[in-house]
Write a structure and sequence with these properties.
The chain is mainly alpha-helical and 159 residues long. It contains six helices and no strands.
Length: 159
């Protein structure tokens, strides 16, 4: 027997708590974080019952999600909330496809980690210092330009 695999199996399947006498049976959600749901299709039961109907449903969800994702990609260089729309399309796909659910879970985890890192006092201090230094450099460059060439309004430039 391999002790390492035994430890992994025990960690993968947490033991359910046994309620004490008189206790109400606990909700078995230990180890599941908020937002984690069961992977797989969320189509209604009557749609899942028929293979042809379920495949049609999946094609419809894919086409709608694709349209939303394409609209988001178009919005990236144009005015509009491109990334928000792309993630909306991914959320539409995630209602039916496991791969989209996994991508959204990974994205949610990375965004949460980045937000926590950005709120770290050392990182915030560094970002503020870099922003101030950048603004000072831009102000000096604008001052040098104005000193050398003066301020000329665009509508007063002689051709």
């Amino acid at each position: 027997m391999n002790a390492e695999s035994d430890a992994r199996d025990e960690a993968a399947a947490p033991a359910a708590r046994v309620p004490a006498t008189g206790d109400v049976t606990p909700d078995v959600t230990e180890g599941v974080t908020k937002g984690d749901r069961e992977l797989g299709s969320r189509a209604p039961g009557f749609i899942k019952a028929s293979r042809a109907l379920h495949v049609s449903w999946q094609v419809g969800v894919f086409v709608v999600g694709l349209a939303v994702v394409v609209a988001g990609v178009i919005m990236l260089p144009l005015p509009g909330p491109g990334w928000l729309v792309i993630f909306g399309g991914m959320a539409i796909w995630a209602t039916e496809f496991v791969w989209a659910q996994l991508v959204l879970r990974w994205t949610r985890r990375k965004v949460t980690e980045a937000a926590q890192k950005a709120l770290d006092p050392k990182v915030r201090r560094r970002n503020i210092i870099l922003t101030v230094v950048g603004l000072v450099i831009v102000a000096v460059l604008v001052g040098i330009y104005v000193w050398k060439f003066g301020i000329m309004m665009p509508w007063k430039i002689n051709e």
